[in-house]
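User: I'm curious whether this sequence folds into something compact or stays loose and floppy. Could you predict its structure so I can see for myself?
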Amino acid sequence: MKSVLILIALFFNLVFLVNAQKKEKIVRVSAKIEVLMEGNYSKEALKQKAIETARIKAMGDEFGYSIVQGVNTQTKTLSGQTVLTTSALNEVSNTMVKGEWISDDKGFPTTKFTVREKNGDQEIWLECEVKGKARKIAEAKVNFETFTYKCKEEPKKCATTQFKENESMFLYFKSATKGFLSVFMLENGKVFRLLPYREMENEYESWVPVLTDKEYLLFSPEHRNYFQGFGMVDEYGLTLAEDKTPLANMIFVIFSEKQFKKPLMEESDGFKTLSLPKFQEWLNQNKGLDKTFQIQRIPISVNE
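Assistant: Here's the prediction. I'll summarize afterward.
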């Protein structure tokens, strides 16, 4: 009888492992999109948004969508590729898919800008193709709320992604569980780390700890006592180049229930920085190792 019970236990353990493996099965996915360039996007910001959108489409086609938002704005070319405008990129990028991206195949993603003639005018198009590995999400993600804003009183009343030159950018964050937080910004092809603050070189070298259901108003000098032992806050006033060319940057809010190591970075004008490919590689590695590792992308623009 004892041996029979042991065999039954082993059988159920085997069934459990097989089911777990099915839930976590990694598959290859791919997608192609074309984007008609409109508005004030920089080329680097547009590339990043297109890559993210193509990944969402690849995973949505394979695993399905949790919330179908913006997908109906897509049309098809004769070649079968998905066509978007830059205004539709945000809608698709906010779509929740039942999967997560693990890694890119070698040589991907690819992007290519082309100029096309239409009714005597010229249009700029971006062609983007992604191929890589992804897996279906087997359990619900931890919820957190985050957004950029520009006033010091009531953040939710002045939440925005559009800023004027010399305005300050602040960040709101609140999580359903305790965990670890870091914030980066993409500008002109280079990634800058914004949080942890620059003086946090020891205890909070890779992340800052955040508590359950607590509101954090970051980059605000009026809210400087969240992290024990560090009373200084880095403020971010948004400026344009001398020619006043509009900026289209990307904020990356990164949260995990588990501690994670920062990427390898260099010093540049007092900031920790790294290249976009290295940053993307770091994101993919962490997403592959940690199911609670989450990324919220917030596109912001700066104009006169």
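Summary: The longest helix spans residues 2-23. The radius of gyration is 22 Å.
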